[in-house]
Specification:
Elements lengths: L5 H17 L5 H8 L3 H13 L3 E4 L4 E5 L11 E8 L14 E8 L9 E4 L15 E6 L8 E6 L3 E9 L4 E4 L8 E3 L4 E12 L6 E4 L1
Antiparallel strand pairs: 1-2, 2-3, 3-4, 5-6, 6-11, 7-8, 7-11, 8-9, 9-10, 11-12
Helix pairs in contact: 2-3
């Protein structure tokens, strides 16, 4: 294990304390805010700690973070999972495989175990009564089908993402909002492609990156 610089050691202690107190690693946004630096600086420090053998990340689309430089007499190694927040959608690719990420967010790996999980940022309040608010991130499990009543992320006309409650009818698909101020939208079968089921919500309005099961 290589020696850490003073700044790297400070960041390592910060991660350790946050993971011990909250049971999960902080989001990149929270870490950047707490330390008064940019997201890029936080990402660079994560990479530096990984190179020096005190932090491990696994996987490609759904990464985990584990501190390996903890040797204080059996302290439990907490695991955080870093998920991509999908930005612009590229036609022809499933959402979890998009290359253009808006950001990443760290969630509790013990709660969210599925493969290729991804996040979408909610715009508007059409799902307010389901506890999904404007600016929230929804955590999605990749799936190309849905049961009636499930909240799903779907791709409309191959380019626009939406999150609504899914209902299959004999001649169309209904995407139903959870706010009485909005009406349901109906689509032909070829106009909509289910991309994932919503399994959690990240409420980061206070930059805390906390995630809850949905």
């Amino acid at each position: 294990m290589m020696a850490l610089t003073e700044r790297q050691e400070y960041f390592f202690r910060y991660l350790k304390e946050k993971m011990a107190a909250e049971g999960q690693a902080p989001s990149l946004r929270q870490a950047a805010t707490d330390m008064g630096v940019s997201h890029t600086a936080v990402a660079q420090m994560v990479q530096q700690l990984e190179k020096k053998g005190v932090l491990e990340r696994d996987g490609h689309y759904s990464r985990t973070i584990r501190l390996t430089g903890i040797n204080d007499g059996g302290t439990k190694r907490e695991r955080g999972r870093e998920l991509p927040v999908i930005g612009r959608i590229t036609a022809g690719l499933p959402m979890y495989a998009q290359q253009e990420w808006e950001a990443t967010v760290v969630v509790d790996g013990a709660c969210f175990r599925g493969e290729n999980l991804f996040c979408l940022r909610i715009q508007g309040d059409s799902m307010r009564d389901a506890g999904i608010l404007d600016g929230d991130l929804v955590i999605c499990e990749p799936r190309q089908y849905a049961e009636n009543g499930e909240i799903v992320a779907a791709l409309l006309h191959g380019e626009e993402a939406t999150v609504k409650r899914f209902f299959l009818h004999h001649d169309h698909i209904e995407m139903r909002p959870e706010n009485q101020n909005y009406t349901s939208m109906c689509y032909q079968f070829g106009e909509l492609l289910v991309q994932g089921k919503v399994v959690g919500v990240v409420r980061d309005s206070m930059d805390d990156g906390r995630a809850g099961k949905h």
